[in-house]
Specification:
A two-stranded antiparallel ribbon has the order 1-2. A hairpin with a 4-residue loop joins strand 1 and strand 2. It has a domain of 58 residues. The protein is mostly helical and 130 residues long. It is 57% helix and 9% strand.
């Protein structure tokens, strides 16, 4: 059997739930009536249709590959530095020492306008603008 407190608590929950539902319906209705369809706001030259989907995909994949080439993976350098520290008991004097001691095959190239900066005191590598 439910007491008066349970009945009032249930009514409050029902009131809050119906208020939230009403607010969501009003806000969704207002948003959909005032906004333009997504296709009308698309600024791509292809329009995003099913006919141009393969071209759009290839364009995006090419851009992703270009962006990937521009970045430098400092994580592998940090790991090599830590392995050097465990093996030798110190951080390398410079990044070339990692190559000489065969902890890495070569120092990775960096994008134009940047350089690798190595702090031998703490054993950290960062990419900085020149």
């Amino acid at each position: 059997m439910l007491g008066d407190g349970d009945y009032i608590g249930g009514m409050k929950s029902l009131f809050y739930l119906s208020t939230i539902t009403a607010l969501l319906l009003v806000s969704c209705g207002a948003k959909s009536s005032n906004s333009a369809p997504p296709a009308a706001t698309n600024t791509n030259t292809s329009g995003g249709s099913l006919l141009t989907a393969p071209v759009d995909y290839l364009r995006a994949a090419g851009k992703a590959q270009q962006d990937m080439v521009k970045t430098v993976d400092t994580t592998s350098l940090d790991q090599a530095i830590q392995l050097f520290n465990v093996d030798k008991g110190r951080y390398p004097k410079d990044l070339n020492e990692l190559v000489q001691e065969r902890f890495i095959a070569k120092i990775p190239p960096v994008p134009y306008g940047t350089k690798l900066e190595y702090d031998a005191a703490v054993g950290k590598v960062s990419v900085v603008k020149q």
